[in-house]
Amino acid sequence: MDIKQAILTRRNIKQFKPDPVPMERVEEWLTWASYAPNHRMAEPWEVYVIGPETRAQVKHKTNFGGAPLLLAVASTPAKTAIDRDEHVEAVACFIQNFMLAAHAEGVGTGWSSLGVSPRVRELLALPEGQEIVGFLPVGYPLEVPAVKPRTPIQQKLHQLP
Ligand SMILES: Cc1cc2nc3c(=O)[nH]c(=O)nc-3n(C[C@H](O)[C@H](O)[C@H](O)COP(=O)(O)O)c2cc1C
User: Fold this and answer.
1) Best substitution site from 63, 93, 113 to test ligand 1's pocket, by max atoms within 8 Å of Cβ?
2) Which CATH superfamily is domain 3-156 in?
3) Which of 10, 57, 67, 141 shows its CA 20 to 30 Å from the CA of 108?
4) Confidence at 117, pLDDT banded by 50, 70, 90
């Protein structure tokens, strides 16, 4: 799959088959993800593999669509508000890379912002200053939602003198 096809056909998957995804592949996609842009080579991502006990306590309404694997990706602590934003931005790039890499090999991913909830934060016992940027269910898609059309980019293009 070329990059254009990967970008255009990736969808936010909400229903998964139970078949496991080989962890070696996941680690490889995470490695590729780590080539994301990041200021001063901060590499501000930490990846948590959520085990069954923790996952049950999260009490997600669909149990993440039955995904066989659940990751949470956090950004590392920062000293200033600017650094904090840059860390989160870099982690978002990391997540996008991961999603595209998985999708290119037929594996679906979702993105849930559930990690912002204080209850979930506490449950994960994150080190001080780490923030969850996304919970990512990972697995073979049971259902692929239709593409949501995007606004023509010309409407977002602003010519400055
Ligand atoms: C920061 C962020 C948070 C998101 N949180 C959620 C979420 O909590 N629940 C959800 O269903 N989708 C969430 N999404 C996924 C979007 O709903 C999804 O990407 C959007 O509907 C476009 O669909 P597509 O990714 O299939 O093109 C999130 C996406 C981002 C970037």
Assistant:
1) 113
2) NADH Oxidase (3.40.109.10)
3) 57
4) confident
